[in-house]
Design goal:
Blueprint (H helix, E strand, L loop, with lengths): L22 E5 L3 H7 L4 H21 L4 E8 L7 H24 L2 E6 L7 H13 L6 E9 L1 H14 L9 H7 L10 E4 L18 E4 L9 H12 L9 H8 L1
Parallel strand pairs: 1-2, 1-5, 2-4, 3-4, 5-6
Helix pairs in contact: 1-2, 2-3, 3-4
């Protein structure tokens, strides 16, 4: 599903809290293209994208989203130019320094999903401290996928299962899910990707097995509250079958 931001009817849409998604995951794509379109350096796009996250966090709480997972830095992003990687690290550190107090006061629980290896030590400490400070907050769970890869996550889960001596016959889907970074959380109901790209890019590939996917043509820095509302409303209007027929669903809800 893609959305053209010029749709004149979009402003009239409202989110149904009863049918809205409880766990939303976002692939925040298009910062670089947003900047290029305006004749700005890529760094300007990344900074604007970070500013936009504040709007979406507030909107998520307003729209009764309980878990928000954001794809901030993938394991593949290490292959980008060193200067850009350093900038992304600085942006994460800046966000932790500048936003942590307000996030904590607003009841946001921060969780890091991904590997710590490769992240500078001082930023690792700030991530750990932020997670510890907010661990009891329950207004919104914010999963920050930083140095994250879906296949890497599954490999680490399998390695941990083996290290724990679990017998082969005891390995189930539920067990594997419990060993993932998102263990204990529901799988995402909705995955949003901005900027018009049509792929998951190694994001939550185990957890996304039954997620609804929404693709937006809008670059992430411009994906505002109204665009978010449109995505959630689109989700609310879908019928989730989970392999069942429409008749079975109708019987269950009758």
């Amino acid at each position: 599903m893609t959305h053209d931001q010029t749709n004149p009817e979009s402003a009239n849409l409202a989110v149904s809290s009863r049918r809205g998604p409880k766990h939303v995951a976002i692939i925040m794509d298009g910062n670089g293209r947003w900047a290029k379109q305006r004749g700005l350096p890529r760094s300007a796009g990344h900074r604007q994208g970070t500013e936009n996250l504040r709007r979406i966090l507030r909107a998520a709480v307003e729209f009764d989203v309980e878990v928000l997972t954001i794809y901030a830095f993938s394991t593949e992003n290490w292959s980008r130019p060193r200067r850009e990687v350093s900038l992304l690290m600085r942006i994460l550190e800046m966000v932790l320094d500048r936003e942590l107090k307000e996030l904590n006061e607003n009841g946001v629980q921060i969780r890091h999903i991904g590997e710590m290896d490769g992240i500078p030590d001082r930023i690792q400490k700030k991530i750990i401290d932020a997670c510890e400070l907010t661990r009891n907050n329950d207004k919104l769970i914010l999963n920050v996928a930083f140095n994250y890869g879906g296949r890497d996550e599954i490999v680490h889960a399998v390695q941990s299962i083996i290290c724990d001596g679990v017998a082969a016959e005891d390995v189930t889907e539920e067990l594997i899910s419990s060993y993932l970074y998102t263990g204990g959380l529901p799988d995402p109901d909705l995955i949003i990707r901005t900027s018009g790209e049509f792929r998951l890019s190694n994001f939550l590939i185990w957890q996304a097995s039954y997620s609804e996917i929404y693709y937006s043509d809008v670059y992430w820095p411009d994906f505002d509250k109204e665009e978010f509302r449109i995505a959630l409303e689109d989700y609310a209007n879908r019928r989730r079958r989970f392999g069942k027929t429409d008749e079975q669903i109708d019987d269950e809800t009758a």
